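Worked Example 4.2. Consider the chain below.
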Amino acid sequence: MNFLKKNSAGLLLCLIIAVPAWFAGKLVPVIGGPVFAILAGMIITLILTKKEPFTAGINYTSKKILQAAVVFLGFGMNLTEILAKGKQSLPIIISTIATSLIIAFIMYKALKLRTNNAILVGVGSSICGGSAIAATAPVIDASDEEVAQSISVIFLFNVAAALIFPSLGAALGLSNEGFGLFAGTAINDTSSVTAAATAWDGIHGSNTLEAAAIVKMTRTLAIIPITLILAIWRGRKEKSTAGSTFSLKRSFPFFVLFFVLASVITTVFHLPAEITAPLKELSKFLIIMAMAAIGLNTNIVKLIKTGIKPIFTGFCCWLGISLVSLCMQHILGIW
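Applying the procedure from the previous section yields the following structure tokens:
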């Protein structure tokens, strides 16, 4: 009862924002529900006269609900199928992830970017957009403003990629297989990968959508090692600054362990689509709900004023990933 009394108002507000954002994302998948939710949250927080009754529930949603969303994401990951179909793309995936993280680090040093901004943009660009940011943010204790900024950057280049890549792939003479790999490794968010692959299939009468989706899901598995490495890094950093003893137990992101467990359950028990599909949809909805909370905790004016550096970092990561994806295809003889 105390939990409900404390959090119900904020939870309800996030839910009210999330429902129309969910439907808007279905209507315009290239933008996606999370972006609609963040924008709505930022606008509502400008006109909200008394935020105190909602604060606890908003904070709970932006942290705990976000972690729950990552756990449910694991039920969409059949590890055997993904690795069997996606192993061909592993050299390209590893190269593009490394490229994005290296570029993000260089931009962090060159532009004196916030550490969390650099990490979130680098991880979001290299792995799987909003899902990777959702998984990484609690591990590095990123603020809601940093999450909102990173999601906005990823969204900008997702839309650009979905619109540009089908024509670019045709101009470069990519094969159907080549474009599937290109879309799956160089576009961040699943909805934008789907939009680009569907556009390609419509132009060429092919079926690259499944291949691109498999590559994209294979990239998603990188959430596991990245979050664990970041947890250890953060724990050691806290130890060096505070002089305390490093504790892996305290630093370990246990929600990622539950994500892995969900993936293992799906794989071992061969859960049918009738079970996994609703859980995947629940994960997407919870992410939208958490993004509404993050929007409510974000000052849109400040976000715009401080957004140039993260946007430029996102552009450099996006450009680097795209070039490396194409170069690796050429080296491997796929293109």
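Residues 166 and 200 are 5 Å apart (CA to CA). The mean pLDDT is 90. Compare this with Example 4.1 before moving on.
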